[in-house]
Structures are given as C-alpha cells and as structure tokens.
C-alpha cells in the first residue's frame, strides 16, 4: 500500500453532471471496499446544489478507471468504461422507450443516469483516466448488495429472476417489432465483446469481428478486429492468459486436482475448462433466443431493496462486459454463483422452472409469436452451461468468495491483476473449495459436464 492516500478527485465534474440548479460543492470519497471491484474504482459523489435559494444534496456514485498503472488492466478497464457509458447514454433510453409502448417501465431496472464523459478531450471517443460515469446513489433509498459470501435466499432469487426474465424479453421483442433500433442495440452489444490480456498464440487472421483460437489447442475463440471504435484491430494476440504464458484453465485445473472430492470429475471437466476465456467470450446468441446478456450477473451486480409487506425491488448494475448471447448464459451463471447453499441444494429446479414461467409469460406480454417448450428451454440452458458458463462460474467463484478487505487494493495500487488472480487460484480458501465441490457436483448431476 502506498504511504500517500489515493487521490479520488475528479476534474471538472460540474461540467458534466445534469442537476436542477447550480452546483455549489462536490465531495468525493471511496464507496466500495478493497477487493469488491477489479476494473473500476467506485466513489461516493455528493453534489450540493442550490436553486431559488434552496439547497439540497444530490447523492451519486462515480465510476472511474482504477488508479494503478498496469497497462493491460488499464486497457481492459477503458474498454469496459466505454461500454458502460454508451449503455447509459444510448441503450437505456432506447430500451425504456420501446418497453413503455407495452406499459413496461424499464427505467426501474437501473439507477438514474446523471452524466458521463470519455475524456477531458471532447473529441475523444475512447475512455481514458479522466473518464467518469455518474449514477444515482441508491443506497440512501434502501438498496444494498447482499453478502457475496452468502448469496440470495429463495424469495430474493425469485425477485431477481423475475426482473432478469423481463430484461431478457425486451430485446427479443425489439428484434421482432423495431428492426432499426434492434440493429443499434445489437451493434452495441457486439462492440462490447471481451477484451482480454495478451496470450501466447498468434494474432487473429480473420475479418473484423472474426474468430481466432486461444493459446491452447482446446482454447476458446476470441474476436479479431471488430466494429468501428472498438479495441484495436487484430484483437489481443492469442487470447486470455495468466502471466508466464499460462492459460487460466491449466492453472485452475491443477488446483482442482488437489481437491480430493473432485477427483471423479477432472477428466470430464478438462475439455470444458479449455473453453475458458474472458466473461462473454462464449458462443454468440442466435435467433430466436439471442438477447442482451449482462455476462457478469452475480451477487455484487444487483442491488436489493426489501420492505415488509412490499414486493422485493431489484436494480441491475455494472454493464461493462455485456454482449449478444442466449438468455441462458446469465441464468446459469447466476444460479451457479449467487444462491445461498441451502437454496442451491433444495430449490435449483424450482428456480429454473420459475424463470421459464416468467420468460414465457413475457413473450406473450410483448405479443410475440414464439413458443418455447420446457424441454427446449432446458436444452438451451444445458448448451449455455457447457459452452461457457461452467468454466465461467468455476473461475469466478474464486473472486466472489475471496477474503474481504485483502492486503492488495487492486482498484488503487500498481498491481498486475492477472498475477493477483493467479495467486488466488493457486491458494484457494475453504469457502472457495467448498463452492467448487458444490457447483461441480451439481453440474455433473445435470449432465452439464
């Protein structure tokens, strides 16, 4: 840890914030604890505003790039920041306007947007260290994150899946009802494709947006090139590697082999783990079930408000690595990573059935001529699990269940995020080991591995 306190100040913030009145003062402090965010620094930003002699404080949160100087982490964070700014500027209004024609208030899914910038250079279309995204701080309204070490109870899980099913249904309806705006949405989602660190293989040789293989024979496909204003043409050479040319699945498999309870599953896990890449790097969505995938739908990325006698309210947050994929990707990842253990063991099928009921109900709500039988639905879920979400869930169980308040503050310090992740993978705590066993046994029972 540096002996000097981090500088959280934000230059010229008053020029981008949209408030009713004159900005008189801005106070910026740290919001989230060390270890809770990897590719952004989340700040509490309280803005004192005056109008007609009356004063009030507008409570917001500011997301900015991490303060450290690791080059690859900074590039990944800048790409993620650009994605999220465009989401709130362009995509939220598009989805909200369309959904309103069916009397759905999609603005309730998200925190209120207060302003953003990519850079102090107004002509820049890429996020840099002066980029900032301002959103309403919904904690004072009663919203909170649940404990990532514990996960969600059954009632809260159903409230989240109800929200997720409606969120997934809107883009599917948009495709059918408004081709022009659907193209805007899909182009955005394609541009959000994951941007990983350099790997050991050659750069991609396909056309913009085409695939190339990762550093191992069984490695995942990664984008080459891409749409205008995306990451540099050619994509990351080789794909997603830890330091010293190690592919994550090799490091993680070695660790899993040391857990005795997992020995019966290792041979079946190996080919699936070979598909592991950055979140969202799996198979693109195909019609009719391709939609807006969050790609990081776990405990920390939804905020919950529970009041006696009222329906549980859910806000979705952190749209940094979204993509165009099957609805089943978010569903599987959530179920495998974010439930309380007793809910995971006793209510997994109930929650699968619950999401199906909500999703198919919404297809009718949007007057879509689409049918999805429960068997077809389960096949879509299994394909998502096998394609990407088993390795995604196994790997992300490690940061989700990592110790709180770690010695290294990855959002502030000059650290190599991938070296730190390597250290975590090679030194699992008991919570992480227990979750691996629980998750992998359940996946095996369902023939997902």
UniProtKB/TrEMBL annotation:
SUPFAM superfamilies: Protein kinase-like (PK-like). Residues 195-246 are annotated as: Disordered. It comes from the Eukaryota. SMART domains: CHK (SM00587). Residues 195-210, 225-235 have a biased composition (Pro residues). Residues 133-365 form the CHK kinase-like domain. It holds the Pfam family EcKL. PANTHER family: BHLH DOMAIN-CONTAINING PROTEIN, PROTEIN KINASE-LIKE DOMAIN-CONTAINING. This is Uncharacterized protein LOC115890907. It comes from Sitophilus oryzae. The lineage of its organism: Eukaryota, Metazoa, Ecdysozoa, Arthropoda, Hexapoda.
């Amino acid at each position: 840890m540096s002996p000097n306190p981090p500088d959280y100040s934000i230059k010229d913030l008053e020029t981008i914030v949209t408030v009713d009145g004159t900005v008189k003062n801005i106070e910026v402090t740290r919001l989230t604890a060390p270890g809770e965010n990897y590719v952004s620094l989340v700040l509490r930003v309280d803005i004192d505003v005056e109008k007609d002699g009356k004063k009030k404080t507008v409570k917001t949160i500011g997301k900015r790039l991490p303060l450290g100087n690791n080059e690859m982490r900074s590039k990944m964070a800048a790409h993620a920041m650009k994605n999220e700014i465009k989401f709130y500027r362009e995509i939220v209004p598009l989805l909200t306007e369309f959904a309103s024609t069916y009397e759905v208030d999609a603005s309730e899914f998200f925190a209120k947007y207060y302003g953003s910038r990519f850079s102090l250079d107004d002509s820049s279309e890429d996020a840099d260290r002066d980029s900032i995204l301002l959103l309403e701080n919904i904690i004072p309204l009663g919203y909170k994150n649940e404990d990532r070490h514990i996960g969600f109870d059954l009632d809260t899980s159903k409230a989240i899946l109800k929200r997720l099913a409606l969120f997934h249904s809107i883009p599917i309806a948009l495709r059918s009802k408004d081709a022009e705006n659907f193209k805007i949405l899909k182009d955005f989602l394609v541009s959000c494709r994951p941007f990983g660190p350099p790997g050991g293989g050659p750069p991609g040789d396909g056309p913009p947006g085409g695939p190339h293989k990762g550093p191992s024979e069984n490695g995942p496909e990664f984008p080459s090139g891409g749409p205008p204003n995306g990451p540099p043409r050619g994509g990351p050479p080789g794909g997603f590697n830890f330091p010293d040319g190690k592919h994550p699945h090799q490091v993680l498999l070695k660790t899993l082999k040391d857990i005795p309870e997992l020995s019966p599953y290792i041979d079946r896990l190996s080919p699936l783990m070979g598909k592991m890449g950055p979140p969202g790097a799996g198979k693109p969505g195909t019609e009719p079930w391709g939609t807006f995938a969050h790609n990081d739908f776990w405990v920390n990325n939804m905020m919950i408000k529970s009041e006696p006698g009222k329906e549980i309210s859910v806000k979705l947050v952190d749209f940094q690595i979204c993509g165009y994929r099957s609805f089943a990707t978010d569903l599987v990842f959530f179920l495998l990573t974010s439930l309380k253990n007793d809910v995971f063991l006793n209510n997994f099928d109930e929650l699968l059935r619950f999401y199906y009921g909500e999703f198919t109900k919404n297809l009718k709500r949007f007057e879509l001529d689409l049918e999805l039988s429960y068997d077809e639905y389960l096949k879509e879920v299994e394909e998502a699990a096998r394609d990407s979400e088993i390795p995604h869930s196994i790997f992300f169980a490690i940061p989700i269940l990592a110790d709180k308040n770690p010695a290294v503050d990855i959002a502030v310090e000059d650290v190599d995020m991938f070296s730190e992740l390597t250290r975590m993978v090679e030194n699992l705590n008991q919570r992480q080991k227990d979750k691996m066993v629980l998750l992998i046994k359940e996946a095996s029972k369902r023939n997902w591995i």
